Amino acid sequence: MAKIDVTKTELVWPGKYNEDGSLREVPRVNLPFQVIERVNESRATREAQKNANLTLFDFYSGKEGVTFEDGWRNKLIWGDNILVMSSLLEKFAGKVDLIYIDPPFATGADFSFKTSIGDGEDEIHKEQSIIEEKAYRDTWGKGPGSFMQMIYDRISLIKMLMSPTASLYVHCDWRMSGVIRLILDEIMSGNHVNEIIWCYSIGGKGTDRFGRKHDTIFLYSKGEDRVFNAKDPHVLMPRKPNSHMRAKVDADGREYQEKTDKKSGKVYRYYVDQGAIPTDYWTDIEQLNWEAAERVGYDTQKPERLLSRVIAASTNEGGLVCDFFCGSGTTLAVAEKLGRRWIGCDLGRWAIHTTRKRLLEIEGCKPFEVLNLGKYERQYWQGSTLGSGQSNGQLLYEYLAFVLKLYQSQPLSGMSHIHGKKGAAMVHIGAIDSPVTIDEVSLAIEECVKTKQPELHVLGWEWEMGLAGPNNGVKKGSPMHDVAKQKGIKLLLLQIPREVMEKQAVDKGHLTFFELAYLNVEINQAKNLHVSITLKDFVIPNTELIPEEVREKVKKWSDYIDYWAVDWDFQNDSFMQGWVTYRTRKDRSLALASDVHKYEKPGTYRVLVKVVDIFGNDTSQAYTIEVK
């Protein structure tokens, strides 16, 4: 390796510098976001978009204002935060007022959570998904050095997003606080403000060492000027009753503490009910116990009071708050309650779902949208993994060959819509950047008929609404299953797992192509424009792949459902929540019939029903109805 010129004190680890001695560049991409769901948005907004040229997912253009009146929507983003932050730079560089992060710290609790099943109180402990396991391996697979690189890259991007008066809070524990401080000093140009010690008593006590009963929160600023609301009620801490000052009561009965400066004779009075400006040693906020009302099942969940102090201290109302490891959504929920705008991101599907439900529980929650990088992330993966600079034809060939190999099938040539063969079954692979369509499946079925092939497996990333359905003959399938059956073809629709984009998961062979879950509803149409929907069935076909401890606790099909919602006027774009029901820790019941919805006028409408299961997976089905 070339010599590195050391001109300052810094932390160095394997991989920080390239072989030629240059500093390794932070990965930078600019991928468009897909809006997959809009929550708490008015029907008027939908009507204004009806004539727009929309596709299966609406495209995020970033042309909104900075207030809700100007069209701002808060954002909950599912994806790898290195890609998300990099893609946010185009619209948000220098515009974020506060960033709080609580990164993973070499413990399985970072990705695990507890969730309940069905109407009762039975709980299961959900371990990390393959995607989360990949993130864990990326972070700790090569020891502390890989963690340091992960933090270095993300703090570098965070600094670019921060406004001139912004603050950064990095929450960590005893494991890595020392190295994080050095990385922060290097990137943030020494703009260190505080090292906050958050003390708590909950948790086990050590017998072979002193009990670890504090976390460290590093506070850095972008520059010399920063927002700091020291006297905000959410910031202040209670005054100590055993203060060295004299305790008194005024004529109105208010308690206060008083001291006199010996040199000047000036008397200082501090009312107890007004609280005190905290020092950097916080002992007044306890860690959450498992019975706390705000608990949502995450082992690493932080109390809302802690985030209230952070957000109120370093932002003003309407300021933009970001959390790129949002987990259970505490930062976003507190930002919402305090009247701040927010952007949250997490790699875990369940984290996004938990946060969505948590936000829905807040009275008067402002409109927000759920986004991902979807097909753009897959396109980025295709170019970076399978080879950039190749022709479109060569790139397509590499993509098909890669997926066929993972599906343990062989490529076939000389056919238009069939790409491979697995045993007696023909295999068709959907495009990386668009949903599998009914027409696409029809053409593949016709090719099977012409070549006298009895079985067709269709692998896809996303699916045209109305295409999903059971792959067996026990229940009525989708229209395409019926068409295939009439033509003597056994049709299987299988989901390409997102994990194919993760090299470690591919190398370990941790991949399963799942059959699509499906649902069945009854549409109840009364006169006078009234419609309601009853959920009649929900099936996860591959139950043998579900952990036995989960299957043992499932008593009926609805136990698999955690949340379901209806878009009463689906426009073939983003899902817009018109009615919703979901389970909470306090109320485990789930309504299986929607409220009655009244349309404004007769006509033909598409209704989209979305179900989220207890694993955080979405299943949607569209229905066309005539409203009279």
In whole angstroms, the N-to-C terminal distance is: 76 Å
**Helix count, per DSSP?**
14
Shape: globular
CATH architecture level-2 label of one domain = 3-Layer(aba) Sandwich
The CATH superfamily of one domain appears as Vaccinia Virus protein VP39
- The parts where pLDDT drops under 50 for at least 5 residues are 50-57, 472-477
Determine the mean pLDDT: 85
Strand portion, in percent? 25-35%
In CATH, the topology of one domain is named: Rossmann fold
Give the strand tally: 30
Write down the CATH class of one domain.
Alpha Beta
Largest sheet, described in full?
A: 12 strands, mixed
C-alpha Rg (nearest Å): 27 Å
What is the SS-derived class?
alpha/beta
**Helix fraction by DSSP (H/I, runs of at least 4):** 10-25%
Task: Give descriptors for this structure.
30 strands; Rossmann fold; single chain; 628 residues; Trna Endonuclease, Chain: A, domain 1; 6-stranded mixed sheet; 14 helices; 12-stranded mixed sheet; alpha/beta
Architecture overview:
It is a single chain. With 628 residues, the chain is α/β, with parallel strands linked by helices. Among the domains are: 79-232 and 279-365, Rossmann fold; 238-276; 377-508, Trna Endonuclease, Chain: A, domain 1 (3-Layer(aba) Sandwich). Helices cover 24% and strands 26% of the residues. The protein contains 14 helices and 30 strands. Strands 1, 2, 3, 4, 7, 8, 9, 13, 14, 15, 16 and 26 form a 12-stranded mixed β-sheet that branches. Strands 17-18-19-20-21-22 form a 6-stranded mixed β-sheet, sandwiched between helices. Strands 27-25-29-30 form a 4-stranded antiparallel β-sheet, with no helix packed on it. It is globular, with a radius of gyration of 27 Å. The termini are far apart. Residues 50-57 and 472-477 have low confidence and may be disordered.
